[in-house]
Amino acid sequence: MKQARILLAMSGGVDSTVAAALLLEAGYECAGITMKLQRDDLACIEGAKEACAALGIPHFVIDAREEFRIKVIEPFVRAYAAGQTPNPCIACNQHLKFTLLLNRAAEEGYDYLATGHYARIEEGRLLKAVDARKDQSYVLWPIRAQHLRRILFPLGGMTKAEARAIAAGLGLP
Are residues 23 and 29 in contact, defined by beta-carbon separation less than 8 angstroms? Predict the structure, then answer.
């Protein structure tokens, strides 16, 4: 039986790093990917690169600055100027993380895209995370139903404190 391949959206933070560690521990073949969204994203990219190196998995960077400007920044500025209070995370998740990265995963032969978001997917439905204080399902609502079957949220069933304890126990950055 073929081992599932998972592409992980890596920020270099504890959540995406622990998500990767959990998937590796479960026996999946993993690689990390970080989106370059602005000129000064070097700290984020270096953090993700270090996390992937600590886990022994490949790391890739995708230049998404143009898509980020067009799909997230410009609509945010227009909405804000019109007196609205937009949430740029929703647009970024919709257009970049769960469209651009999901397409990239498929192009590169990965079966799933995983992130460090605190949310759950059960029976094809997006659900709140177990940790109500950390739940991020509210910024994930635009994900298309057909995409949910190719997305994993390994942290959705745990608390932030549990994720930090796993990171500390594994000596992760």
Answer: no
The residue to which tokens 């126990």 are assigned? 169
DSSP symbol at 4: P
| Helical (H) or strand (E) element with 152 | strand 151-152
Both tokens of 158, joined, read 């745990």
Residues 6+ apart with CB under 8 A from 155: 15, 18, 19, 22, 116, 117, 118, 129, 163
Neighbours of 120 (CB within 10 A): 18
Output phi, psi for 151, to 5 deg: -120, 140
Give the total residue count for the chain: 173
Give the global pTM.
0.92
Give the SS3 label for residue 97. Answer: helix
Q: What would the two tokens of residue 69 be?
A: 């400007």
The rounded distance, in Å, linking the Cα atoms of 82 and 73 is 14
Dist CA 138 CA 101 (whole Å): 20
What tens digit of pLDDT does each residue of 84-127 get? 999 999 999 999 999 999 999 999 999 999 999 999 999 999 99
